[in-house]
Write a structure and sequence with these properties.
By secondary structure, the chain is mainly alpha-helical. Helices cover 79% and strands 0% of the residues.
């Protein structure tokens, strides 16, 4: 025999816990995204100023700026779509971390 008040209380506690958990997770996500976005923008500006200070810009410098652009775009995509775009950088990193795979993208 079920005890209705106990089951009702259990469902209420479960609902409250789920709501609080969702709040904490979403708050952490947004704080982390703002921090990542701010640090990415700061790093890009500092890298650009370093390039100007150096007096010349190389292809490596331009590629670095594109990496910063992609990182910023990944943060923006999450804000707009709530979808993480981590597979592209992760797969690129996996391919490039082994010296045997560095020419794979050029083939």
């Amino acid at each position: 025999m079920k005890i209705n008040w106990a089951e009702s209380l259990r469902q209420h506690v479960h609902g409250c816990a789920e709501s609080l958990g969702n709040l904490f997770v979403e708050t952490f996500h947004y704080l982390a995204l703002f921090a990542i976005g701010a640090v990415t923008a700061w790093a890009a500006v500092m890298a650009f100023l370093g390039m100007l200070d150096k007096g010349h810009i190389t292809v490596d410098d331009i590629l670095l700026l594109f990496i910063y652009l992609e990182l910023g775009a990944m943060v923006g995509i999450y804000f707009k779509t709530k979808v993480y775009v981590t597979n592209i950088p992760r797969s690129g990193y996996q391919m490039l971390k082994s010296p045997d795979n560095t020419g794979t993208w050029c083939a």
